[in-house]
Each structure stands twice: as C-alpha cells, then as structure tokens.
Amino acid sequence: MDAADRARLAPGTAAGVTEPMIEALVHAFYGKVRRDPALGPIFDRVIGDGWDEHLARMCDFWSSVLLMTGRFKGAPMAAHIQVGGIRGTHFAHWLHLFGQTADEVCPPPAAALFKVRAEMIAQSLQLGIAASRGEAA
C-alpha cells in the first residue's frame, strides 16, 4: 500500500484530521496536562526535560493512528507499564482533559474520532497495566 492509499483509507481522512490539527491538539492538551495538579507531577517525573521530544512523539503517534503515516515507532504499553502509580482515575482524568481539548481544537467529526480512539487506547493500556501487575483475571 502506498502513501496515497494509506491517506485515502486512514480513519482521520474522512473526519478532516490534518497534521496541523494533530499538532495543535497535542500541544494544547499536554499544556493542560503539565498544569494539572494530578497528572502534571506524573508526567514531569517521567518526561523531565524531554517535553519537546515527547510532544513530537505524540504527534507521530496520533498521525500514525488517524492518518496511517507509520511515523510512530515505539512501544506505548511497555512505556506505560514502567510508570509507577498510574490508576484508573488517572486515565479517566486524562480522557476528560483530552476530550475537552479535542472539542476545543477540532471540528466535531475530528474531535469525535480522536475521543473514540483515545478511549480505546486508554482501555487497552489499563488492561495491559493491570495484567502486568497481576490484577487482571
């Protein structure tokens, strides 16, 4: 499959998702995360001074998820498992902030797609973290 086919078949294409939209959403969202009293300290502990790299990776991630660019190279599950102290309440709060930001930054069809995909990803990460802790049945 070539780049034109990927772009045509990408879920974000029909919803009007663009690279500038992804960048705007990622930067606005993580700006909120950094200021958030519950999430900010967790992210700062893990990311430290690497925010520019993290933002670029998150843009690559969302571009890969919604526009099928294949730019993201990483292991999100392994990265999240290594972070201590992540609970379901953190994911719920993360999703709330993400959804709020998507609604502010994106037109409704794109915001809806971002939110659905974020919920699926969060659920998968939560299950993987629970399993790694021996908490899953």
Q: What is the string of SSEs from the N terminus onward?
A: HHHHHHHH
The structural class is mainly alpha
Question: Care to count the β-strands?
Answer: 0
Count of DSSP H/I helices? 8
CA-atom Rg in angstroms: 15 Å
Shape, principal axes of CA atoms: globular
Plain-language structure description:
There is one protein chain. The protein is an all-alpha fold and 137 residues long. The chain is built from eight helices and no strands. The protein has helices at 3-9, 11-15, 19-35, 40-47, 51-67, 76-82, 88-105, 108-132.
Summarize the structure in short.
The protein has 137 residues and is mainly alpha-helical.
Task: List descriptors.
0% strand, globular, mainly alpha, single chain, 137 residues
Topology:
Blueprint lengths: L2 H7 L1 H5 L3 H17 L4 H8 L3 H17 L8 H7 L5 H18 L2 H25 L5
